[in-house]
Amino acid sequence: MSNIDPLLRYLLHPSGRKIDTIAETSIKVIAATSILTIVLIFFFVFKEASSLFFPGESHSTAKTENISGSSPAEYNPDGNAPTEYNPDGNAPVATSPSGDAPTEYNPDGDSLALGPAKTETSPQPEPEKLSLFENLFSKVWQPVSSVPKFGILPLIIGTAKTTVIAILIGAPLAVLAALNITFFVPRKVREIVKPAIEMLANFPSVVIGFFCLMDVATVVKATFDLDFRLNALTGGIGLALAVTPIIFTVAEDALSTVPQSYRQASLALGATEWQTAYRVMLPAALPGVFAAVLLGVGRAFGETMIALMATGNAPMMSFGIFDPSRTFAATIGAEMGEVIWGSEHYNILFFLGVLLFLFTFTLNAITELYVKKKLMKKFQGS
């Protein structure tokens, strides 16, 4: 008994349990670090995008560092102006009696029959450079050209098309699957099927992208007799495969939390199982189901690899689902690795990231402020 007394005193006196204090402090530090990391990421993205509208010192420095004259144009340690490449140090051989540089490559030394003199073409007028806002809201995304074009309208349409297709396919399928698993499938089958579907949420998106690139695209092209294998429909199907497990998991959890008394009362009044599930249980769980669909929208809107591999990756100003398209996330993923740091293109890619963040933040705000408060009060009476 004497050995147990110290343990009892330790358990019954929380003030003396140092391990609890250490655990609480660790949790607070980890939470504060997570919040600080998220804030710093948002600050970094906004800062890089703000250089587009408020060009500062870093932006102007990046543009002018190569034309300031500080770096030599050629490597010349002796200070003499080299005229030709001559590693042996011999005197250069005259290439022409007149001392002029040859105008054409002629290793045989034969005289060449000169063709008609080339006619000089009149210089083409340079295209008019648009202002920043006119450029952003134009219909062409062509960042690599003499006059770069950064029209985001094709990207908005491409992102909206693939997201809508993914939700139209994935949301009904996921909700019906959740209804079936919750109310119609035996418990033993549910314990096998539910984890299997939830495992799909952990699938690497690049694997789904490969599947769409090699198989789904072929089936879609053969079914609809299309000209393009990769298009918005193929990308939407790939995104639907990614969002369906997410919507299913959250919707199934929402349906499982509805009190069984609702179901028993409906069945006691003579309703069938399907009528009970569709007209009683689903409306009671509608806030959770709606939140699940919004989570799926956010995932489809921000998905990168599947959109990059399955949509055709062409910024076309077209609303057709059979035409190739390009999304915000795919544009950032494809071009950020090759862009010049501090350039206008660089800042616009961060501006696309800001738009992605604002869209996701708006979805979360709608979920918190409207779904959890308005719909719960309406359907649950709380």
TrEMBL record:
The topology of this chain with respect to the membrane is: Multi-pass membrane protein
Q: Where in the cell is it found?
A: Cell membrane
Q: Does the keyword Cell cycle apply?
A: no
Bias type Polar residues, positions: 59-73
Name the UniProt key words of this record, in alphabetical order.
Cell membrane, Membrane, Phosphate transport, Transmembrane, Transmembrane helix, Transport
Kindly give the PROSITE patterns that the UniProt entry links to this protein: ABC_TM1
Q: Which residues form the ABC transmembrane type-1 domain?
A: 152-367
An annotated GO cellular component: plasma membrane
Job description of the protein:
Part of the binding-protein-dependent transport system for phosphate; probably responsible for the translocation of the substrate across the membrane.
Q: Which NCBIfam families match?
A: phosphate_pstC
Name this protein carries in UniProt: Phosphate transport system permease protein
